[in-house]
């Protein structure tokens, strides 16, 4: 289908920790993309989305969000973390375990992890007990990434570096969350 951007070019005028961009900054950013350096371009990270991967992204969005998946306005609170917690163990033993090939497992785990990262309220609004999810998810990635790219159905030039970037960003977010005990996401 096409590329999904994982990391874009960082604007030197834009603080990446800030979630909002001023409209004037957007206009400035769009003015002349021909002046990006090779170094800036080399920081881009993509994951190529196949039809099957796209289908898994849709399925896992609905799985992670549950009844809220197709609502225009979503509400998140501590109960969402319980849904994610229970959902993870269901995902691991009933969905992921039934995937037959490393490529199927990759598409499922990528889609599931992507949505856990996007809808990260579970990480910040919970009453503990997330260590098991984080540890198991990291171990699933560690085992899966031990396969070669051909078995995973991915390319080495863009998709593998894109997934590693997604996981590094997810790791940074997980490990910076206020949690006792501190969470560790050791996927490599």
Report what the structure shows.
There is one protein chain. With 188 residues, the chain is mainly alpha-helical. Helix content is 55%, strand content 6%. A two-stranded antiparallel sheet has the order 1-2. Helix 3 (51-65) crosses helix 5, helix 5 packs antiparallel against helix 7 (131-145) and helix 5 (102-118) crosses helix 9 (159-176). The longest helix has 19 residues, at 78-96. It is globular, with a radius of gyration of 18 Å. Residues 14-24 have low confidence and may be disordered.
> Gap between N and C termini, in Å?
28 Å
Mean pLDDT: 86
Report the β-strand fraction as a percent range: 5-15%
Portion of residues in helices?
40-55%
Main sheet: which strands, in order across? Answer: 1-2
Element order: H for helix, E for strand: EHHEHHHHHHH
C-alpha Rg, in Å? 18 Å
Largest sheet report:
2 strands, antiparallel
Low-confidence stretches: 14-24
Number of helices: 9
What is the topological layout?
Blueprint: E1 2-7, H1 23-29, H2 38-41, E2 45-49, H3 51-65, H4 78-96, H5 102-118, H6 121-124, H7 131-145, H8 149-152, H9 159-176
Helix pairs in contact: 3-5, 5-7, 5-9
Structural key phrases:
188 residues, mainly alpha, two-stranded antiparallel ribbon, 9 helices, 2 strands, 6% strand, globular
Briefly, what is this?
By secondary structure, the protein is mainly alpha-helical. Helix content is 55%, strand content 6%.
């Amino acid at each position: 289908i096409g590329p999904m951007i994982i990391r874009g070019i960082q604007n030197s005028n834009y603080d990446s920790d800030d979630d909002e961009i001023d409209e004037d900054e957007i206009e400035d950013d769009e003015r002349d993309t021909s002046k990006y350096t090779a170094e800036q371009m080399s920081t881009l990270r993509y994951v190529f989305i196949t039809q099957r991967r796209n289908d898994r992204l849709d399925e896992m969005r609905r799985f992670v969000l549950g009844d809220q998946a197709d609502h225009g306005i979503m509400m998140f609170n501590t109960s969402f973390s319980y849904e994610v917690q229970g959902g993870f163990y269901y995902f691991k033993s009933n969905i992921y375990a039934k995937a037959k090939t490393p490529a199927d497992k990759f598409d499922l785990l990528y889609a599931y992890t992507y949505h856990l990262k996007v809808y990260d309220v579970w990480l910040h609004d919970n009453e503990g007990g997330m260590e098991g999810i984080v540890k198991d998810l990291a171990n699933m990635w560690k085992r899966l990434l031990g396969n070669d790219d051909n078995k995973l159905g991915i390319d080495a030039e863009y998709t593998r570096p894109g997934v590693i970037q997604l996981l590094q960003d997810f790791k940074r977010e997980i490990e910076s969350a206020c949690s006792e005990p501190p969470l560790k996401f050791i996927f490599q």
